[in-house]
Amino acid sequence: MSTARAIAGDIRSGAQRAADVLEEYLGRIEAHDGDVHAFNTVTAEQARAAAAAIDAAVDEGRDPGPLAGVPVAFKDNLCTRGVATTCSSRMLEGWRPPYDATVVQAMTAAGAVMIGKTNLDEFAMGSSTEHSAFGPTRNPYDLARVPGGSSGGSAAAVAAGFAPLALGSDTGGSIRQPASLCGIVGIKPTYGRVSRYGLVAFASSFDQIGPFATDVADAALALGVISGHDPFDSTSIPAAVPDFEAALARGVEGLRVGVVSELTGSGRNGAATGSPMLGDAAGEVLGGIDADVTERVLEAADALADAGATVGRVSVPAVTYGLTAYYLIAPAEASSNLARYDGTRYGLRVEGADVEEMNRLTRRAGFGDEVKARIMLGTFALSAGYYDAYYGKAQRVRMLTRRDFDAAYADFDVLLSPTSPCVAFRFGERADPMTMYRCDTCTIPSNLSGDPAMSVPFGTGAEDLPVGVQVMAPALGEEAMLTVAAALERAAPPLPKPPLAAAASTTGAGS
Ligand code: GLN
Question: Which residues have a Cβ under 8 Å from the Cβ of 254 and sit 6 or more positions away?
């Protein structure tokens, strides 16, 4: 399997044809997606036409762009003109958007070739992709385990070698957590850095789009392509887009890295494995962090210190309330956003005696249980008499989180934590909602603050499954975040390839 950079380089120079690259990826999907179920739709014919256009451009001496001929998978909550966009919900089955999301436009304008739309938890609500109306996606490392969620399809597609790049959305961790569980890189940019135009809304004050890739440099390349101001998104930031790739070669010397105490628990036991510089952790979050994960994060911190960074512990007290605040605010926003699925405008309609009954029957048939639970929770949190006690209080916690992060960033350039409290779990293992929601403990704080955060693979934990380290930075601080992520990638122990991708690279070489 090649990187997006290598593929685009080859195609721009004429060393490879976009059509051939595409067939190689379509072949892998054909051979293995029956097992993985990363895709809701594979857009083979449209992709063949797009690849042919890229090859024609090269033949005519034109440069198709930095992602020339790179197959890319889009999460199925990103609008794609004329191509079904389902959000993995019965509610939108058969709906074809009349326009492309800004990020889809940006990727294709840079030469990328859409290869398909990927599975997700219904309307992006979940952490395992088990809540998809079309059945779960399986983790390429172990088909008995979840790929994480909600962008599980995008993460599994990249990990399985079905596409070198994918886009997902992250409202409470849905890019970073599946990236972590699938052993790849995933970035949630600063809120406003990437346009949300054409992303089907879940919780609009949190939703951000970002890339999945097999390495930090590919993720940085894709981030550069999709970043920038967009007048179609009123929360889009009119800031210049830095050269993200230039940040990768910078060393970490002099950078101050803070390991978040509340998110690293007391997993490290005894002096034999103890970090001489970090000592013991202070607090611990609800549900805890598994010891194998904490171990890798502390090793990552040590590796950064070895590379010249100044590493210390930092307390960000409000992160312990993040989960509670998020699971009030996000459902509140969702209850409002999902009111538009009424049987009149989009997708499904179940006829009734009058409009009200039609609305009710449509929503009852169209939404799955988790989505219904969120709508009810959100409606309750916003109802008269409870608004101040729940929603208002959660907003104050959100403010507190921002302040605590600001205080931490006064002393540190980036912060480090686990991405997920555990490695990939088995299907059904986290069936009760609270256990599932705890998957988001480490990722949610950066959604509350709006700051950028990413997951980088760093070794393995239990059962030799991938562990991801989360690198967080202040708003618009993606460059320092990427510098640290690149350093972690250089220091990381080699990650075993998922069995599927290993098989794919053998067949790929022979064909
Ligand atoms: N797992 C979280 C939730 O269920 C986050 C989802 C997301 O980021 N889209 O809300």
Answer: 308, 309, 310
Q: Let me know if residue 86 belongs to a domain.
A: yes
Whether 446 lines ligand 1, by a CB cut-off of 6 Å, is no
Domain range for 75: 4-170+177-184+201-213
Residues in the chain: 511
Cβ contacts of 32 within 8 Å, gap of 6 or more:
160, 162, 500, 503, 504
Residue 66 included in any domain: yes
Residue 26 resides in a domain:
yes
Domain assignment present for residue 280? The answer is no
Do residues 199 and 236 lie in contact, with contact meaning Cβ atoms separated by under 8 Å? no
125 lines ligand 1 (CB under 6 A): yes
Can you tell me the distance from the alpha carbon of 87 to that of 82, in angstroms, rounded to the nearest whole number? 15
Strands 113-118 and 71-75, by their bridges, are: parallel
CATH number of the domain that residue 134 is part of = 3.90.1300.10
Ligand 1 pocket member 173 (CB < 6 A) = yes
* pLDDT confidence of residue 149: 97
- Ligand 1, residues 78, 88, 121, 470: which to mutate, most atoms within 8 A of Cβ? 121
Q: How far is CA 370 from CA 287, 385, 433, in A?
A: 21, 25, 9
Q: What is the reported pTM?
A: 0.95
Tell me how far the alpha carbon of residue 148 lies from the centroid of ligand 1, in angstroms: 10
Q: How confident is the model at residue 94 (pLDDT cuts 50, 70, 90)?
A: confident
Distance between CA atoms of 333 and 340, rounded to whole angstroms? 12
Domain count, the chain: 1
